[in-house]
Amino acid sequence: MSTFGGILSIARGAISAHQTAIQVVSHNVANAETPGYTRQRAMLQENWPARLPQGILGTGVFVSDVTQIRDTLLDISYRRDTSNASNFGLRRDLLGQVEQIFHEPSESGLGATMDAFWNAWSDLSNAPDNNVARQVVQQRGAQVADALRGHVAQLDQVKADTIARLDRSVAQMNQFAGQVADLNRQIVVSESGGQTAGDLRDARNRIIDSMSRLASIQVIEQPSGGVAIIVANQTLVDGDSANALTYGDMGDPLTTQVSFRGSEEPIRGIGGELQAATDMLNQDLTQTRARLDDLARGIISAVNTIHEGGWSPTEAVTDPPPSDWEGSGIAFFTGTDAASIALSSEVAGDPRAIAAGDVYGGVASNSIALKLSQLRDTPVTVGGTTSSLAGHYRDTVTTLAMRTADAASSTAAHETLAAQSEIRRQSVSGVSTDEELVQLMRSQQAYVAATRLISAVDEMAQALLNMV
Predict the structure, then answer these.
(1) What pLDDT, on a 0 to 100 scale, did the predictor assign at position 1?
(2) How far apart are CA 193 and CA 311, in angstroms?
(3) Where along the chain do its domains lie?
(4) Cα separation of 297 and 359, whole Å?
(5) pTM here?
């Protein structure tokens, strides 16, 4: 039968339960501005009822668990958008560095330097016997070679910086994987009694959010409380064990790929910053460097072919001219690509080695200078295709600008999506102090009501004693 002890037991349980609920609310309010914190709720559950002659009577309330208010679908959406935003964001930044190397359009870029070179030949064609005009051609040619070599050196620096960024990102990913595995172990142990380890789960979720910036990941909840993290359909973390990533050429010296440690198979579509870094190394930098090399080879070949057929004032003049004379044979440039292009030793040593015309001993001939001044827009073979040297360079700069603009617009779009995903996620998981105050008042009223039960039992007991 119902007794005073039973009522007091119910009141005591209610006081304890609502006191716990108030403590959870206090924890939420204290962490309202803590990044990555997920609001918690004390889950109140009725005790098992007692079967008495009077019927089945309730025995009060208890806190079954302190759970997190979190939507895993919103987590998936946020991490997907964050991964895409990080991918395009890093790509935009790296392409921006390459774009700064070319610095076009400007009066100091490679395009202007090449224009000054062709203009110098035009000036020489107007005064083919002027040694000062030859010195200007020599200086402008050296500037073209210096600019091309300088561009290559700066591209190599961007490549080195990108590799260093990739190295840091891979190291961070491995560190995060180890931390998630360790937290999985702690969570499984803490939740073995059926309770939720909310703060440990928050710590793990913050790390997983950081991992999503580095790569596109899939998180699979396990019944034990741990998680598995999948990268490109391969397991990086499984419970308390973690694999590791590495990077290298994977047997192809022209590429840099990310793979799982111990595997030579590159990870395709890894996403995040790792994807941006590898794409930059394998595509953008490689293609831009190849375009510069093609341009340098086109300049070397086209200029030398014309210049070698001219007459240089440094040649001894004989009368009659040699019957087999077909030009001085002096190359203007040497080298095989943008990294090695330079003035030939003859031209660098003496500007009089520069040919202006193709008439033997003809100091007034200007045919070579005219042809070279027109070379800017003359179709030549560049990189296996027919194009003008100016057009090839213009296409290189335009392609780079379009890629940078595309990366910038994609970054803005995905950052907006990520921000919206975070707003939706915070609307569920974030702490609203107004809502918490309402919950506090409800728990406080229930707590006060439970204490009133004790007062009521005391009054009932006193009334019973007074009857004796």
Answers:
(1) 42
(2) 95
(3) 4-69+431-466, 76-416
(4) 27
(5) 0.85
